[in-house]
Amino acid sequence: MRAIDHHAWTNRWRDWHPAEKLLPASGLLVLTLLLPPLTIAPLVLAGTALATVRGAGVPLRALLGVLAAPAAFLLAGIPFLAVSVDFAQGFDLRLSSEGLRLALTTTLRALAAMSCLAFVVLTTPLTDWMASLRRIGVPAGVVELILLIYRLIFVFFERALTGHQTQTARLGHSRVDRSVRSLGLLAGNLFQRALAQARRLEIGLLARGYAGELRVLAPRPVLSRTRLVAGMGLVGLVGAASSLLARGFP
Amino acid sequence: MTAPLLAARGLEYVYPGGVVALCGLDLNVERGRKLAILGPNGSGKTTLLLHLNGTCRPTRGEIRLDGQPARYEHRALNHWRRRVGLVLQEPDDQLFAATVGQDVSFGPLNLGLSEAETAERVREALTALRVTHLADRPTHALSFGQKKRVAIAGVLAMRPEILVLDEPTAGLDPHGVTHLLGALQQLHEAGTTLVFSTHDVDLAYAWADQVAVFHEGTVLCQGETAAVLGNRDMLHRARLRPPLLLEVAEMLDAIQDRSRSIPRTREAVLALLRERLNEAAPTVPVEPALAHAWRGPSA
Q1: What is the ipTM metric for this complex?
Q2: Which residues of A touch B99 (CB under 8 A)?
Q3: Tens-binned pLDDT, residue by residue, of chain B (299 aa)
Q4: What total of structural domains would you count in chain B?
Q5: Within this chain, do residues B168 and B258 fall inside the same structural domain, yes or no?
Q6: CA-based, 20 to 30 A from A139: which of B57, B117, B216, B253?
Q7: Cα dist. A54→A26, A40, A51, A63 in Å?
Q8: A103 within 8 A of A78, measured Cβ to Cβ
Q9: Best of B46, B55, B95, B140 to disrupt the A interface by mutation (most A CBs within 10 Å)?
Q10: Minimum Cα–Cα distance from A196: chain B residue
């Protein structure tokens, strides 16, 4: 998660208007869901990989890292799709070609869809979405909650990590039963600290005139029509290419 | 005599659990001074600072602003906190926004300033703390020292008359301390009154021009730095030791004349030491020998 955040903040397309990244990515996502996966999914995967790695300058490793977790779930699901069980004549377990095809198309489609999301999260920091969320009418309280969670996740991640390290240093994780006990203690400790931290955060905010609203001066990136049109044009091209290819396939 | 800018009179505070934190404490914050509140860790200094901006309300006694008893209704508190800025010890308790620039803009926007004015205040505060280059960085990716300076910038952007800092140098490396004190010194020269808590006698000696010694919920003694920190009996009662520089300087002066003013910086004490050693044995090359002694056996 820290890696995603780091790239989102430092990539070459960081300063672009979020819509310039979100709209083409959504376009690709819609194509992935509508068109036959065998032709569109590889094109979408290639397109998002190129945009993320070549365009925004995010290392390929980071992209693969983001895709790895869902890919693992997909792989785990393949056997259940590929193998069909028939109870009509007793018990019949078989690998059907239909099942294999279903497994392949589902996996491809899901991976391609994930890559659209990966492109967006790797190129746009979460905070860029705050202003947009407000604009489309999400209540201020919800947006502030997202902001605070985002900010404090990193504080607690750090505390959890140091806590775990000091426990390990005192052999708290040397056996499974000890490990379970230590994790319980750590969780309880983090919970108490979270409450104390919330109280101190409130003191700090009140000292700066907090009156129930977390208003900050956020930069307003300018929407570049050229980039948006170019992005959507590329999405159109991918769709057209996929349709052409699909004619070649039965 | 004019009333001090901010004062505590007979301040008493009992925690909800019944533990007494402050018992009959008096304190004066005078305009344009650098006041150190000196006391051991965990002695209730933070609780005292929380009274100075109205976060805690005393059980008995009062806080006075310009000689007037402070009031705790909403508008009065807003006005109070506009004048007295509080910087917490742990910067992660204070920074909430995603980027440095956004976090610093929070205070000025709460003052009701326009976006243009706010942007100007943000620039000004970041410049004063020398962190302009961090403006667009996410707050969670900063070093501790950087977070500390950004937290101060966030309060400074509201242009408080008095800046109250809880242990400003805690957790900083020597370079970070120098950097931070340099920035605070500039603020002070620009007219901001500074109040800071510390357990570091040497820091208070080198940098404050007034010291209040905090001990067991009360201020034992408040006055000019040299006078307060030269009072060995009182320091002993407060379980503090005299500043090292003062002790060295006193020993050096004890040999020679007592008419000179007591040096308060490391450089001044070293210069005095060099002078004395040269007087004692003019032919001995003092500095290399000293440097060797300083490095000790590990060198």
Answers
A1: 0.73
A2: 127
A3: 578 999 999 999 998 888 899 999 999 999 999 999 999 887 889 999 999 999 899 999 999 999 999 999 988 998 999 999 999 999 988 888 888 999 999 999 999 899 999 999 999 999 999 999 999 888 888 999 999 999 999 999 999 999 999 999 988 888 889 889 999 999 999 999 999 999 999 999 989 999 999 999 999 999 999 889 989 999 999 889 999 888 888 887 765 555 567 778 888 888 888 888 887 766 555 555 454 544 444 43
A4: 2
A5: no
A6: B117
A7: 20, 20, 6, 12
A8: yes
A9: B140
A10: B93
